[in-house]
Protein: DNA polymerase III subunit delta'
Amino acid sequence: MYPWLIPVWQPLQRAVREQHLGHGLLIKGMAGLGKRELAEKLATALLCQHTSNAPCGICHACELTAAGSHSDLHIVGREGRSIGIDAIRELSRIMSESARLGHGKVAVIERAELMTEAAANALLKTLEEPAGEATLILVSSRPERLLPTLISRCQQWLVPLPDTQSALAWLNEQGVQASPSALSVNQGSPLQTLEYLSAGTDDKRLSLLAELAGLGKQPGRLQKVQAGLQEQPVHLVWVQLLLQDALQTALGVRAPLKLADCRQHSALIAQLGPMQLHELHSALLELRRCLQPGQGRPVNAGLQLSQWLHRLQQTLLHS
Structure:
């Protein structure tokens, strides 16, 4: 188990052994913290035949769970872009039946925020009238997207971000050299940072932001920068963090930079002044909002980004 999960796991395990858990649980926290592993560990403990020592790891139920073949454990939401009403109705039907091994039934709904409104409403009845020893575990990185009525019927367990030093120490144990900046661009998630560094993406970030900051001196690189930013939505997050550092520098705020390894680039952009930086930052946030799925009519991402970059370039050229 990941070390940052242990402070959450220990009270959960104690609640299982003392039989103090409710029928509905919500495990929440940002993506990349191992919430799925925590939910699976909890499911194993709930199904364990030795409640006072759950999970024992040696009983028949624990062996079946480890093998992924426990007939009373059901997982929904691992695949697909949404969780529809049919999947929830079928889950509710299964959960209403008697446990085959006689020690309760557990359902894990991963990425619970992907439930449609109809699916969420269908789940409400199961939470209100749980059958026997049935337990529903919802896992979500975006709990604000869940119905408030659904959340109110669940015990909530937050998986917090580990502190920076603990996260960096863990990453070092995995054999990668991580910087606070790499952790920042991955919102403090150790697992996402590990994947990011293993893929060599940090070099791309440093190169792309260097070219962005240099647009005032090398305007011919505009199309190359645009192509780099369009590769992945997260690349615009890199730019956002750089602008935030530049604004902080321009305002003279003495606080650690999000991207300390791009200090010279943020210092260069800071010369634009707080007002220009604020306007550019606000425009970037609006651009990111418009490019998100489900935000009304589709927009031409290339055109929108080109206009924003041209605005940045012209501001740099005349600074």
Observations:
- The CA atoms of residues 24 and 154 lie 5 Å apart.
- The mean pLDDT is 92.
- The two ends are 52 Å apart (CA to CA).
